[in-house]
Amino acid sequence: MSLFNQPHARSGPLADRLRPTGFPDYVGQEAVVGPQSALRGALREGKLPSMIFWGPPGCGKTTLARILAAEAGLDYVQFSAVTSGVKEIREFIDRARATRDMSGRGTILFVDEIHRFNKAQQDAFLPHVENGTIVLIGATTENPSFEVNAALLSRSRVFRLEKLNEEDIWAILRRALSDGARGLGGGRIDAPPRVLETISRYSDGDARVALNLLELCVTTTPPAEDGTRHLTEEAVKAAAQRKTLLYDKSGEEHFNIISALHKSLRNSDAQASLYWLARMLEAGEDPLYVARRLVRFASEDVGLADPGALRVALSARDAVDFIGMPEGALALAQAAVYLATAPKSNALYRAYGAAAADLQREQNAPVPLHLRNAVTSLMKDEKYGDGYVYAHDVPGAFVPGMVCLPEALKDRRYYEPTRNGYEVQIAERLARWDALRAGASAPAVPKPAKKKKGKT
pTM for the whole thing? Predict the structure, then answer.
């Protein structure tokens, strides 16, 4: 019988047909569903809490909810936050209440993509979770700390589900190829290990993607004379077209990866910096957003240890703006490697933070009189500019006795250079000037007989 004449081949997508119905067939997530896990313990005690399943697509959130309902003997109702609203929630709640009153049987209400509900919609679940009308299971790919109502979170257990590893994906693919009732076991399919490896790589830990890709390869590969379909790596690549990268430009993965890029740059890891940069750009991140972050890094983490870093980052920004993508990716890569391999200093970052903190703690100090311009006769009478010395009129262009900070802050030190890169030279200059200040006998020096016009 041909693969395509078998009844099970027409009963839905392979990923849905092969969905596990019990724990023995459930692959991965051992920390969450293992025999000694808290979740299995609650199931054995008959006290399933409301819960949030947080994990990437295709890791088994929906399947686990169905298994829990079956194991606990509860009714199971599922809907998506994308297509349903408060009206549907109320209908499901009324139905669950009626079921409980008539038969004593509880209901698991599974809400896929619960983060799509706003906070007011999520509030609609609260009284029914509290009085036990439903056991709510919400599934989300986003960090529930940000996306789920705090009141609902406090009444639920959060279980973190991880992306499936390669061994898990291989186990799922082998089951699909061997299961004659629900999978592809009724057909003659030759899938060498290198093909399964390629499918696993393209699926990136998503079981649904892996099974869909396997099914597409089988249906698009013509049988040989003996009826066997010989799957190849080329067939997998043709079916996949391009690997889908897990990335959400406004979600947690966005912040996770930009954090990884920034910290790799800071740790002078050029290889990791290139990897995380490519992860963002290849997933479709706005290249100008990446450029802005590199510009920020150039001042925050390289600073004056390499003053050229800021110029390189700004040049990369200009290049992306000028030539666009994908060509601009190389300019960003050049900047990333330069920043990763540059000497590092956060002295400038700390100095500005300290100065800003003083502004919050201290009253707004007046500008010292000798630093003010006397542009009117009244200002001159009020001694604006008295004691000011034009630095270029003295040797070394430095006036040791002239204090430029407000009186209350005159001894503050904000910028303390490191001993990295160009800051070594800056430190030497500052030390020389500090020594000259220490040797000054008075807070000011006599000003020249006549200030040259236009100098301030």
Answer: 0.58
